[in-house]
Specification:
Layout lengths: L3 E5 L6 H13 L5 E5 L6 H5 L8 E4 L2 E5 L2 H19 L5 H11 L5 H17 L5 E5 L3 H8 L1 H26 L3 H6 L4 H20 L5 E8 L2 H16 L6 E7 L7 H20 L4 E6 L7 H8 L10
C-alpha cells in the first residue's frame, strides 16, 4: 500500500468523507496517519467537529490533520522570493522588484505554486513520521493544475536560466578584472532557479512512482461526475501520473418503494454499468448513501468499507 494517497473528484461528490473515513480505517489498524486538506472550502474541521489549523493538529490517537490555507501560503511564497532577491539584487531596483512581486501575489497560478510547494514540503518533512499521508484535494480542475505544475514550471525555469546565463556571460565579457569575472561563476539567481528545478524534479518523481503515490477518484453514479472523471484521468495519463482506484459514492439502497427513488435507482444502475465498462481496468469501490448528515459517527461507519488494502493498491 502506497504511503501518499490523493483523493480527488468533482465538487460535492464526497471526497472529504471518503478521505476521512479511509484515514479512520487506517488508524483502526494501528497506523499513524496525516490527513491534509488542500481545498480552500475546508470541511475536515466540520466532520471532526474541531478547529484544524494551518499547522499539524492532533485529532485522535495516531491521526493528525492540517488544513492548508492557500492565501497564507501564497504570502509566504512571495515573501520567500522577496527575501532571496533582496540579498542579491541591487538596492537601486528593489522598489521595482517589490512592485512586481506585489502584482505576482494576486496573479493566476501563484496560489497553485505556493500550495504545491507546501504539499511537497509536507511530503518531504513528514513522510518518515507517518504510515500514510492522505490528501483531501480541491475539486478536479484545481487539482489538475497542481499536478501539471512540474512540467509547466520546469520549462519556464529552463527558459529563465537560459536568459540569465546570457546576462551573466555579457557581464563577464565587459569585465577585465579576473576576480570579478570569477565571482560570476556562481550566480545566485541561477542557483536559486536550479534549486527550484531540483525540487520540481523531486516532486515529479514522487508523482509518477506507483510505489509511492496512489491517486483515487471519488464520483457519484451520475453523468457529469463520470464525464469529469474520464477527462481528468486522460489528463493525468498524459503526465504519467498513475490512477488505479475509483470510489463510487452515495449508492442508493436496493429495496426502494418510492416512485421517485425507483426512477432514480434505474438511472443509477445505467450509470454504474457505464462506470464498470469504461473503467474496467480500475479498482472500483461502492459506498452507500447514508440516511443521516455526515458526522463523525458516519465516518466510522464508512471506514468499515476500507478494512483491507486490496482495493486501493
Amino acid at each position: 500500500m502506497n504511503k501518499i494517497i490523493f483523493f480527488s473528484g468533482k465538487g460535492g461528490v464526497g471526497k472529504t468523507s471518503c478521505a476521512s473515513s479511509f484515514a479512520i480505517s487506517k488508524i483502526n489498524q494501528n497506523k499513524k496517519v496525516l490527513l491534509v486538506s488542500t481545498d480552500p472550502a475546508h470541511s475536515t474541521s466540520d466532520i471532526f467537529e474541531m478547529k484544524i489549523n494551518n499547522t499539524i493538529t492532533t485529532i485522535l490517537d495516531n491521526l493528525d490533520a492540517i488544513e492548508i490555507n492557500p492565501e497564507e501560503e501564497s504570502k509566504k511564497y512571495i515573501n520567500s522570493i522577496r527575501n532571496n532577491l533582496h540579498k542579491i539584487i541591487s538596492p537601486a531596483i528593489l522598489s521595482e522588484i517589490n512592485t512586481q512581486l506585489d502584482a505576482a501575489s494576486v496573479s493566476p497560478g501563484t496560489h497553485e505554486a505556493s500550495l504545491f510547494d507546501k504539499m511537497l514540503s509536507i511530503i518531504n518533512t513528514e513522510i518518515e513520521n507517518y504510515d500514510y499521508i492522505i490528501f483531501d484535494t480541491a475539486p478536479t480542475g484545481h487539482t489538475l493544475r497542481l499536478f501539471t505544475l512540474p512540467e509547466l514550471l520546469g520549462s519556464w525555469i529552463d527558459s529563465l536560466v537560459k536568459k540569465r546565463k546570457k546576462v551573466v556571460n555579457y557581464k563577464k565579457m565587459s569585465l577585465t578584472d579576473k576576480n570579478k569575472r570569477k565571482n560570476l561563476e556562481h550566480d545566485p539567481i541561477i542557483e536559486i532557479l536550479n534549486r527550484r528545478k531540483e525540487n520540481l524534479e523531486k516532486a515529479r518523481k514522487i508523482m509518477i512512482d506507483q510505489n509511492k503515490l496512489s491517486f483515487i477518484f471519488v464520483l457519484n453514479a451520475e453523468k457529469l461526475p463520470i464525464d469529469e472523471t474520464k477527462k481528468a484521468i486522460e489528463i493525468l495519463n498524459k503526465y504519467s501520473i498513475p490512477v488505479g482506484t475509483l470510489i463510487v459514492n452515495r449508492i442508493l439502497p436496493k429495496n426502494i418503494k418510492d416512485e421517485f427513488f425507483i426512477r432514480k435507482k434505474e438511472h443509477e444502475i445505467k450509470h454504474l454499468k457505464t462506470i464498470y465498462e469504461y473503467f474496467k481496468d480500475f479498482n472500483i469501490i461502492e459506498l452507500p448513501l447514508l440516511e443521516r448528515d455526515m458526522d463523525f459517527k458516519n465516518i466510522n461507519e464508512l471506514s468499515n468499507f476500507f478494512k483491507t488494502d486490496k482495493n486501493l493498491v
